[in-house]
Amino acid sequence: MSKLIATRAIRGAHKLVSRAEKEFSDALKKHGPDKKVEFPNTGYYLPISHGMLGMNINTVGGLQPLLDKAKSLLHPIPDENKWVPYLGHTLDCGMAALFADEIIESLKYLQDPLPYTVMENCPEDGNFWLGAADDVIMRKRGIEFVDGTAPGFAACVGACPSTEVAVKIARELQEKNLYVFMSASNNGKSMADQLREAGVQMGWETRLVPFGSDVTSTIHALGFATRAALSFGGVKPGDYARNLKYNKMRIFAFVLAFGEVDDEKHAQAAGAINYGFPAISETDIGQILPTGVCTYEHVVSPVKPEEMIQKAVEVRGLKIQVHKIPIPVSYGAAFEGERIRGEDTWVEMGGNKTPAFEFVTSKSINEVTDNKIEVIGPEITDVPAGTQLPIGIVAEVAGRKMQEDFEPVLERRLHNFINEAQGVFHMGQRDQNWIRISKESKEKGFKIAHIGTIIHAQFHTEFGAIVDKVQVKIYTKQEDVLKWREIAKKAYNKRDERVGSMTDESTDTFYSCLLCQSFAPTHVCVVSPERTGLCGSYNWFTCKASYEINPRGPNQPVPKGDTVDALKGQWKGCNEFILQSSRKAISAMSAYSIMSEPMTSCGCFECIAAVLPLANGVMTVSREFAGMTPCGMKFSTLAGTVGGGQQIPGFVGHSKRYVVSKKFLLAEGGIKRLVWMPKALKDDLRVLFEARAKAEGVPNLLDLIADETIATTEEEVVAHLQKVNHPALTLPPLM
Ligand code: SF4
Ligand code: ZN
User: Fold this and answer.
1) Is the pTM value of this prediction over 0.85?
2) Which residues pair with 300 in a beta bridge?
3) CATH of the domain spanning 505-730, picked from 3.90.480.20, 3.40.50.620, 3.40.1470.10, 1.10.630.10
4) Closest ligand 1 atom number to CA of residue 533
């Protein structure tokens, strides 16, 4: 191995350990040994010392044994000219450096003001350094490293040669779905500073995570990896060998070192090598080529910035499927969570502002010309910035194995597929969709037609087994959209009716839907004949079809098992399934209750129901209603409160269709509990609702229910209920 690297890494470790020692003794003097140290919002100990050494450090005094351990691992600094025959000393010193880092970083949280902004995403102005990941982030993001949503991360150390290079590298890593962890600086500048200069959105949501400008903040990348192994890899605290092995085998991570690599940075690289994470350096720092700890080489340099990622992927042995979709913007799961603000939008479509829908339909093989993409009506280039356009997306597919039942399965995926384009935002489904294309993407040449390009490519990639041909028509003229929307609505209704007279009792098997876990990692929709998925797009048949297409996909059969509570809709098999697939976050779920262990909500719900305690009833509001509701929150605020995969008694997200199901809030008395809903939703459901109300013995129930023309506060609702003698008044108390 290179003599220079060993010398410099070992020297760096010595420097870091002395620095840690000094800062530790200062802190001891200032705060005393009992002062609490922790990374904020973690119900956990410091990750490296806990994971590697089994230490449970939570006070300043508790750092002493960690410091001792670091010191014990230091080896004498070798002569630069002396050959170091093996890697062992360098690796030991690398670990010592990591322990020193952890001491230094944990003490930073005692500083005033804090050097970090404790948030998930970077604020738009001011300090963007985020420091250690908290438990919420860990739960949400760590799992992606395990289930393959994110293959790993690139720890980017220092500053790129220019802002342009920094942006290019960040985008390329995002496209490969890798997290970009940024730390350290060169001459006061870091890669994150460069991204900020270029106006790039940073934070966990875009996978561009700035940890800190100090070289020691690199530890937060390794801390994250260590905790992932503990939380998701079943590794026990203190079992350092298994922890390192897990990381080597499972987490595809590497270090990209930009600019001048000083002694301390060398030490970080040596620490990372312990995890099997190689380092690729832009400047010449020599090489460590023999394989052993890492999959291939340990350190490779010099590598030109534009070749670094390719090199890293090669060296780390990373298999990435990048089906390059021919569009002028980057594409990948990392762009899924991206927000586009109104003022950054070139064109906005749907979202209750213009008529819109999306629809997948099957045709016979000779009716479809593969890859034929048409925009019928104005393109983005024909309209000025800030335009609102109607949109109707009709994807026509053909294939020998294609079936009508598969149409909604493909259709629901339009959401992720379109959202994964950089600068394109997609929400909702069916005739509730909402799309924004950013000014930046428009400037790069992104057109409405490219939505068709994406659909074509992704349908072939993801549904190659059933789809042979795909053509896409995108309507942007109001009259076409309205005309086609009616056709689509008929198909939506037909799909909804398909479940028809099937009851939950008539089957032993429900289906799961985990599609929304990319947004809400603990969310599980359990779809039964009488309860559709909360987005309204997936009913029991759709899930069944999806399972047929892909038996290992997001829709799995869920054996109901023994009944726990028939009224609440709880079954043993379902509970077990949910516990498993919510990553142990949710242990029980009542399909028919809003009060007792209700279903989790991702963010796609067509409606949100909320308890109105004074009224002894429940209101429900659908997405298209933008006004104030009697629970004191608008739909958007409610969505923020209820969404994200949590279980919140008193609130539940659901589909429109579920309102007219016999199982709607069965535990709380069914539709007789409904005391308020927007007028538009009443009109939407009228025919089916009236049939249900009749069956419940209250044929005029819909007219007894308040809407925004009658009441916008809970008090007004109560007054109305008393006036009309609403049946909720006679139901048992809700709370
Ligand atoms: Fe599946 Fe539920 Fe998401 Fe709909 S809301 S796509 S049913 S997980
Ligand atoms: Zn969802």
Assistant:
1) no
2) 280
3) 3.40.1470.10
4) 7
